[in-house]
Amino acid sequence: MSATSTVFAAAAALAAGHLGHLGQPSPVAQPMHAAAANEITIGQSAQGRPIRALRVGSPRARVKLLVIGSVHGNERAGEAVIERLRRARPPRGTSLWLVEQANPDGAAAGARPNAHGVDLNRNFPYRWREQDGVYESGSGPASEPETQALQRFVERERPRVTLWYHQALGMVVKSTGDPVLERSYSRASGLPRRGLPAYHGTATSWQNTSFEGDSAFVVELPGGALPRAGVQRHARAVLGLARAIAPPRLVLKPIPFDDQRKADMRAYARRHYGLDEYRLLDPKVIVEHYTVTDSFAPVFDTFAVNRPDPELHELPGTCAHFVIDRDGTIYRLVPVELMCRHTVGLNWTAIGIEHVGTSDAQVMGNPAQRAASLRLTRSLQGRYGIATRNVIGHNENRSSPFHRERVERLRTQTHADFPKPVMDRYRRLLRRLPAPASVR
């Protein structure tokens, strides 16, 4: 261990009772208050100061973002962003966890390391290596109580995205997480996205390698305190990330799917796929359709009735799992766990999405409907691990590697909706969204 801890102790003693960085009272001098109902203590520092996390948003939210205001006691500008986010309203389906100070001893002393002289951002267990001096890495991986508290919290809450504020390079640091999210924050904040060396023992590298599909990255703020406009800009950038990964809003509008319909679906699967099953056990494909109607009501009425379809004259009746109306409303008609009859050769493994409209051009030219379709499709990709190449149009069913049909006369059967040129554009738009795992 270096001699930094001795210097740290002296600095902490001088700091007690005085204003800290950004004009806020030192934690040592603050009176104890009852914590808010949505604020919890996740651990203690080396000198016994509490490390607290505040939840903003619904406790039932499935998608969580974690924002760390400071991890080095002399890099505290991010705490002002945390203060602003306390008053935020996260998008539906998301919540924020806010940790103002991951290193309260360092904040009290105005020093980079914790009270043991350890740089916490070299103490995490991924690629940990013994280091001395400014980047003292501790006696071993995760040797410090602050590191352990943060690890436990991340492991318990599994934030989809984590932001760690540092200073003073003025950049969004490239990581191995979702590059779309990093570029989104870069654009919203005005900071360039750049790479740094692969340091040992960092928090973001530990998170990105430990939790598949989650993204953690560093935002290096400029030096000094953030001006008010800068605080607002970074808070908006955080909420922009939350909007980008928020789950799509679904309106549940179930069609009847009783035991008879399930039996009909099982019989259909035996006849066409050789499967004795009515459930959709492991979807690998998403098929996009349009309804050839101008409104949702006739689509629902058609799918709700379990009667032979007018084209192939088979049971069960045709259906789709989702229908997207022209205003962007997403209706879920059938749970994804059940097979639906929507695409010959693929019903055994495909999720069906219908779009209210009479042409591909009408659907793709409707911004609200198109955006809802892309968001829903991306979230289904993430939830079920479906590759973008397997997001297809109805017209592409025969070229899918999952196409299977035992009835010979139907092996070449298809429809005209969403042909390859349209779907090539659709897939390009999908790839501009956050990675499927980010919106799972």
Summarize the structure.
The protein has helices at 4-15, 78-85, 104-109, 145-157, 179-189, 203-210, 228-245, 259-273, 297-304, 360-364, 367-384, 420-431; strands at residues 39-44, 50-57, 63-68, 94-99, 161-173, 193-194, 215-222, 250-252, 285-290, 322-324, 330-332, 350-355, 391-393. With 440 residues, it is α/β, with parallel strands linked by helices. The strands form two sheets. Strands 1, 2, 3, 4, 5, 6 and 7 form a seven-stranded mixed sheet that branches.
Give your account of this protein's structure:
The chain is 30% helix and 17% strand. The chain is α/β, with parallel strands linked by helices and 440 residues long. The longest helix has 18 residues, at 228-245. 45% of the residues are buried. Strands 1, 2, 3, 4, 5, 6 and 7 form a seven-stranded mixed β-sheet that branches. The model is unreliable at 1-35 (pLDDT under 50). It starts with a helix and ends in a 9-residue tail after the last helix. The protein has helices spanning 4-15, 78-85, 104-109, 145-157, 179-189, 203-210, 228-245, 259-273, 297-304, 360-364, 367-384, 420-431; strands at 39-44, 50-57, 63-68, 94-99, 161-173, 193-194, 215-222, 250-252, 285-290, 322-324, 330-332, 350-355, 391-393.
